[in-house]
TrEMBL record:
Taxonomic path: Eukaryota, Metazoa, Chordata, Craniata, Vertebrata
Domain called FAD-binding FR-type: residue spans: 51-165
UniProt-listed SUPFAM superfamilies: Ferredoxin reductase-like, C-terminal NADP-linked domain, Riboflavin synthase domain-like
Signal peptide: 1-17
Name recorded for this polypeptide: Oxidoreductase NAD-binding domain-containing protein 1
UniProt superkingdom: Eukaryota
Gene Ontology cellular component terms for the protein in this record: mitochondrion
UniProt-listed InterPro entries: FAD-bd_FR_type, FNR_nucleotide-bd, Oxidoreductase_NAD-binding, OxRdtase_FAD/NAD-bd, Riboflavin_synthase-like_b-brl
Transmembrane segments: none
Length: 313
């Protein structure tokens, strides 16, 4: 769950075990229903770790839309991936943002980063989330009670995003992820790939620079979206590269992953080798990780406006 961000200026679709096949009618929460749901959630949210409290000063869109669960699959032993069908045409997001996640009957509001590209929403009215198991009520509901056709409500928020305009200068991207911090960075990676496809197919639009993803987890089973990432690397080898890291691997590493895998943490030197005036850095992971790399980049004289980070707890 993403919950704190510093803002700079403004992939291939994952296949789930169950695919959305039904169209949904346009749904919007009435103002009274939304007001009741939000106020009730805030009044009952007493813990300082609650999403609404942590992000009270973060910008949000006004649109709150109902959504229907139309796909679900296990991304790992502890992470469940959802597809949500959002029929409301006023609902939109920028790659890297999260949603307030309202669940009927659950007083606490969740906050989950979107891991799909905005293009999937534009084309199919679908967004994807990947939620790690936790004792927090929204995560518990997703893992233990959520079923196909369950209805929820979502609202977009967050100041951590990649949203270049067609005439903007080309930028290289360095994405640094730890654990489930991959979620918003995968959205950015997928969107960058969509923009590059547009440029190749149409000969116009934003020109994406090179993209390097650094991604660390305890072991290969906790490296989420491995195949999606490698598919993009193989589709655009001249544009996209990845460096996968594991810190507590105990089993044999598959031959497919070996060329991309390093045992050990992401190092300062690896990141420093990618510093240039054309490069933007996006970091998402546990607070110690985001603090470390953002500080190291500042110490290496990377302008603060070229560093965007988001912490999750």
């Amino acid at each position: 769950m993403a919950c704190a961000a510093v803002m700079i200026h403004g992939l291939l679709r994952s296949s789930l075990g169950t695919v959305c096949t039904q169209a949904a009618s346009r749904r919007r929460l009435t103002s009274s229903a939304l007001r009741h749901l939000t106020l009730t959630s805030i009044m009952k949210s007493k813990r300082k770790t609650d999403h609404l409290e942590r992000t009270a000063n973060v910008s949000r869109r006004e649109v709150v839309s109902t959504a229907k669960v139309c796909g679900a699959a296990a991304e790992s032993s502890s992470v469940k991936r959802l597809q949500l069908l959002v029929a409301d045409k006023d609902f939109s997001f920028k790659a890297g943002q999260w949603v307030d996640f309202f669940i009927p009957g659950v007083s606490v509001v969740g906050g989950f980063s979107i891991c799909s590209s905005p293009r999937l929403l534009e084309q199919e009215r679908i967004i994807e989330l990947a939620v790690k198991y936790a004792n927090h009520p929204p995560a518990l509901w997703i893992h233990n009670q959520c079923t196909l056709d369950s209805e929820v409500a979502v609202r977009v928020g967050g100041e951590f995003f990649f949203d270049p305009q067609p005439a903007d200068a080309s930028r290289n991207l360095v994405l640094i992820a730890g654990g489930v911090g991959i979620n918003p960075l995968l959205s950015i990676l997928r969107y960058a790939a969509d923009l590059h496809r547009d440029r190749v197919n149409k000969g116009s639009g934003y020109e994406v620079g090179t993209i390097k993803l650094f991604y660390s987890a305890k072991n290969t089973s906790e490296l989420l979206f491995k195949q999606n990432i490698l598919d993009l690397v193989n589709e655009f080898p001249e544009k996209i590269a990845c460096s996968l890291h594991v810190t507590k691997q105990t089993t044999q590493i598959s031959a497919e992953l070996q060329p991309y895998l390093t045992e050990g943490r992401i190092t300062e030197k690896e990141i420093r080798d990618h510093i240039s005036k054309e490069t933007l850095f996006y970091i998402c992971g546990p607070p110690p990780m985001t603090d470390f790399f953002s500080k190291q980049l500042e110490n290496s004289h990377v302008p603060k406006e070229h560093i965007c980070f988001e912490k999750w707890w």
